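User: Reviewer 2 asked us to show a designed sequence for the structure in our supplementary figure. I'm pasting the structure tokens here. Could you produce the per-position amino acids so we can include them in the response letter?
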């Protein structure tokens, strides 16, 4: 991926319902200025194509809808988040026998919000639309397989919405779409609000300090969980863009606002790590210990953000190298997250790696990566 970009893991969020700003088609990832050392910015979160950051008024919090309480989740979780535009995404649901072993190790299946909002085009999503997932029976099958569903969408995007109000409308639509088609959303991954509270994107910036970012984040969580009490909300933040002391400061700021994170997932930019050479083992251990002290399950995203990882094989090999690094540093994290946003391919979609099959030694698939990656951790 282009290391001058915020990320290719972009949610091209579309406005829905009664908003005053029209929703354009998805655009290309935005470039950000380099750091003072001209090092690459982190593998970070998703931004919107919308540029009007004025807050809509009189947006009601949706009425609480009743959903039967599902079985409790274990404390140690394995997550699977396929790439936006992976070419065989729907086959995870139409050919379930091709990943039965990998699926037996998974607890959580995570969608990017773009894939399930169901409004407007998404160039990086390829053919993986909400309607396609409905036709494949995806949400009901995940329920039948006892896999918890998660959505990734943060509260703050400086080139679109600094208030969290517009984003919440999209969040609400995504949940209702899934739950109207047999699924239950139980977990929610906030897309790096600490980063986006202060990041400048194409000259637009919310300009929040830590406390202000925490306040907007709190409001977002309160509205989401009031409407959907079964949802537990956690956070993703980038490293080494933020140091471990900075990440601790952010978590404490949330706690001071009364936020109890359901989990904290670290998005490590391995490319930047190679430039800056921090002591990853020491830092991972320190953050894991801090989260344990604060009773927050700690997880590490297992992915490749290597610039040259443009094939299934290079993605697989570079991610396995990162898995071995994590294992040597702290062993198996409490949450293990297999997630891709690699791209875009020449066709414009974020499609690396392919998902299936799980057991062909000639195919470097995402589900094979799950099996062999967990073997590194000793399951």
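Assistant: Here is a per-position design you can include in the supplement:
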């Amino acid at each position: 991926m282009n290391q001058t970009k915020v990320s290719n893991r972009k949610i091209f969020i579309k406005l829905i319902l009664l908003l005053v700003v029209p929703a354009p088609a998805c655009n290309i990832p935005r470039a950000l200025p380099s750091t003072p050392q001209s090092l690459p910015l982190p593998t970070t979160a998703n931004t919107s194509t919308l540029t009007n950051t004025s807050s809509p008024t009189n947006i009601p919090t949706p009425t609480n809808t009743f959903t039967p309480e599902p079985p409790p989740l274990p404390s140690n979780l394995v997550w699977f988040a396929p790439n936006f535009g992976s070419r065989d995404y729907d086959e995870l649901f139409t050919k379930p026998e091709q990943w039965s072993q990998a699926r037996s190790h998974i607890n959580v299946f995570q969608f990017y919000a773009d894939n399930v909002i169901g409004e407007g085009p998404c160039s990086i999503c390829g053919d993986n639309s909400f309607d396609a997932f409905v036709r494949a029976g995806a949400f009901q099958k995940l329920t039948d397989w006892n896999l918890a569903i998660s959505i990734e969408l943060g509260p703050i995007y400086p080139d679109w919405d600094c208030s969290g109000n517009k984003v919440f409308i999209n969040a609400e639509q995504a949940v209702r779409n899934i739950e109207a088609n047999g699924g239950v959303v139980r977990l929610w991954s906030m897309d790096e609000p600490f980063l986006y509270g202060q990041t400048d994107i194409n000259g637009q910036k919310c300009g929040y300090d830590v406390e202000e970012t925490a306040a907007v984040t709190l409001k977002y969580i309160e509205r989401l969980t009031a409407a959907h009490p079964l949802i537990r909300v956690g956070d993703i933040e980038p490293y080494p863009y933020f140091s471990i002391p900075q990440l601790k400061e952010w978590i404490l700021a949330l706690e001071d606002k009364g936020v109890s994170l359901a989990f904290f997932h670290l998005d490590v930019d391995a490319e930047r790590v190679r430039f800056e050479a921090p002591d990853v083992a020491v830092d991972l251990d320190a953050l894991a210990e801090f989260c344990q002290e604060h009773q927050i399950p700690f997880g590490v995203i297992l992915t490749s953000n290597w610039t040259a990882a443009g094939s299934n094989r290079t993605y697989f090999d570079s991610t396995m190298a990162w898995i071995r690094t994590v294992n040597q540093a702290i062993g198996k994290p409490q949450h293990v997250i297999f997630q891709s946003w690699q791209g875009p391919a020449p066709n414009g979609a974020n499609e690396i790696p392919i998902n299936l099959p799980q057991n062909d030694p000639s195919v470097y698939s995402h589900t094979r990566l799950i099996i062999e990656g967990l073997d590194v951790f000793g399951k």
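For the response letter, you might also mention the following. The chain has one domain: 77-376. Confidence is low (pLDDT under 50) at residues 1-66.
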